[in-house]
Amino acid sequence: MQVLVLLLASVGTCLDLLVVAATDPSPVRPDPPSVLHTHQRQKRDWIWNQMHIDEEKNTSLPHYVGKIKSSVNRKNAKYVLKGESVGKVFRVREDTGDVYAFERLDREKIPEYHLTALVVDKNTNNSLESPSSFTIKVHDVNDNWPVFTHRLFNASVPEMSAVGTSVIRVTAVDADDPTVADHASVMYQILKGEEYFAIDGSGLIFTTTKTLDREMQAKYEIVVEARDAQGLRGESGTATVLVTLQDINDNFPIFTQAKYTFAVPEDIRVGSSLGSLFVEDPDEPQNRMTKYSIVQGEYRDTFTIETDPNHNEGIIKPMKPLNYEDIQQYVFTIEATDPTINLHYLSSISVRKTARVIINVTDVDEPPTFKQPFYHFQLRENQKKPLIGSVLAIDPDAARRSIGYSIRKTSDKGQFFRITKQGNIYNEKELDREIYPWYNLTVEAKELDSSGYPTGKESIVQVHIEILDENDNPPEFAQPYEPRVCENAPQGKLVVQISAIDKDITPRDVKFKFSLSTEDSNFTLTDNHDNTANITVKYGQFDRESAKVHHLPVLISDNGRPSLTGTNTLVVTICKCNEHGEFTYCEEMAGQAGVSIQALVAIFLCILTITVITLLIFLRRRLRKQARAHGKSVPEIHEQLVTYDEEGGGEMDTTSYDVSVLNSVRHGGAKPPRPALDARPSVYMQVQKPPRHAPAVHGGPGEMAAMIEVKKDEADHDGGGPPYDTLHIYGYEGAESIAESLSSLGTDSSDSDIDYDFLNDWGPRFKMLAELYRSDPQDELMY
Question: Which residue numbers delimit the Cadherin domain (predicted)?
Fold first, then answer.
């Protein structure tokens, strides 16, 4: 900081100090005048300036950097440097303070070094002055040439761009110090591609021509060089720029053929494709917007050309049906244009924008064609077998075959109509407009061969028959009426107002007339002349005891031609009323007027259904009883498995059974005969558990021994039928038991005369049983 103050105070003094610091090995910095005037004593301080050294010096090492000096004047003082680069890069002479560099420095790697200077005692290494930090700056020399940020650049520009259109900016970097004049300046120039592009001092590449055509050349390669503005004239950096031209719509489509010929059958469906037109467009697909049109010929309304956006093809489609018998060939001229083309960049106008199209129509065996697309006939109702109308179809082919007609059964399920060979339609039954006012028939026309048989080609047409109305329905009540009147109603009391409708088509001026068929009643009918009538009490005071319901016939006439009159019965119920004229009790209409036919039918169906269900239940029970009786007469063969799953103590368990008795029974004793059974015995499944017995006195045979003896005898002396096995599992286990198996399977049956070999013929289900009862020849020899 003091150096900066001295520089501001006196420039001349500072220059003298710099010279002294650079030449004198032990310079003494004079006190500045300002300091001498303000301080009475001299302050000890470090004496040096900021040090500099050039990078990459060519002189021999070490290189002198500068001198550090303190105002401490002691013979035993020495200078010491501290820092990361001390010892390897920089060293100082202890006695003089001269600083040297022992390596060549590169500013591009380390531009400056930060060190710390100390003055210490030679003997004790104690600091004699406070440490001071200083900086050694490395001066830049122009020793680097420019290097591009990328070796390869990619750029794009629209084709046919104007001169001066920017393409891309490239950048080369010089590692030298940019603060030193011209050390980091870069000059650019194009080594390859200069006939189409140029580059300015900032590295911006731009076009120098407006004729860059992508269809001629789509890519350009530019080689750019970057050089130092000064210094290294022989060294430079290069980079490659690949420029791709972007396509614009600047070319018309061109037909690949001058003439297109197609052959199509005459029955081709309207709107379907009959052929494709192909063009070539040098532009890219996104810029191909070809439009096809017919420019010459009178068939613009017969054909249309649609563009396929995926393939840029023109698809010809017929807009009308083709007929070989009328026109066999169509010839017209087509044109291909592009309405989106940029005429400003249009390179050239093609001469192959038009082509000739020839369409040859081939003959096919077509079905008959009706003269009309549909037919509409009218027929008055209630008329039988009049001629309703005629349909006509012809063979459009040159053969002109005869035609046969028929009505599809699905359109005339009631078979009301028939059609003749000439196409005349008649009705077979009288038709009622009030049931079906319209009939829609589907009439088929088929070509017939010389023998009168259909050839397979057919056509259909819709025939709509409208049934015209006749005045054949008399008027009737507009709704069902249920009038009620008090038995004490006064004379002139309104009972009900009635109106009428007619099922026939009612004209606007229809007039219904109302009247009573008899005057012998207590009611009066008044015609209101607006198609309504009022029923009122004529005399008053009805007698409910004599009649609770009155049936009043009403005659209703229309004004049709001829006029029709209908009789409608109005059922009036006589009710009891209170003094205010409110109904208190009325008989049910159903009980007085009787049950309707629909109700009777419903009741009958319910009774019939219940009867049928009862009969089915009775038959089912009877069949079950027969099946059970048949099952008892022919018993089935079952296997019996009796399981005793109680575990005992074996030999040591003497609280449940007397094992000695079981053993004695096994080795001797008489066996009572077993009663004979049927050939196929009926065996029942049993799951038995032996009862628990209290401890008994041993010595005599118990109930268990007797039961086992009986079972053994029954198994051994069954001579009346095939044997079956009863498996008894006794799970009484114990150590050193003297009782062996108690099953009858192990019982000797040598005293039985029954031969059980027939069990082998009973099938696989009795295989195990047959093996158990099979006699061993060795045993027979022993006995």
Answer: 78-148, 149-255, 256-370, 371-477, 477-584
> pLDDT of 343-388, one tens digit each?
776 655 555 688 999 999 998 888 898 999 999 999 988 887 789 9
Of 309, 353, 358, nearest in space to 329 by CA: 358
CA distance readout (Å), 458 to 419, 448, 539: 16, 10, 76
Peptide bond just before 62 cis, omega within 30 deg = yes
The three-class DSSP label of residue 609 is: helix
Nearest to 223 by CA among 200, 205, 207: 205
DSSP 322-385: --TTT-SEEEEEEEEE-TT--GGG-----S--EEEEEEEEEP--PPPEESSSEEEEEEETT--S
CA-to-CA separations, 48 to 39, 133, 258, 435, in angstroms, rounded: 21, 11, 96, 130
Sheet strands side by side (includes 329-337): 259-265, 354-362, 329-337, 291-296
Helix, strand, coil percentages, rounded to 5, for the chain:
15, 35, 50
Calpha distance 555→215 (Å, rounded):
99
| Separation of alpha carbons 532 and 657, rounded Å | 108
Q: Is the pLDDT of residue 26 over 50?
A: no
Element (H, E) at 662: helix 659-667
**739's tokens:** 């009782």
- Provide Rg for the chain, Cα atoms: 65
The pLDDT tens digits for 64-122 are 777 777 776 677 788 788 888 787 878 888 777 788 888 777 777 787 888 878 888 88
| φ, ψ dihedrals at 5, nearest 5° | -65, -40
* Cα 102 from chain centre: 78
Q: Are 437 and 467 in contact (CB under 8 A)?
A: yes
Rounded CA separation 276/307 (Å): 9
Q: Taking a C-beta distance cutoff of 8 angstroms, is the pair 357, 334 a contact?
A: yes
Neighbours of 485 (CB within 10 A): 25
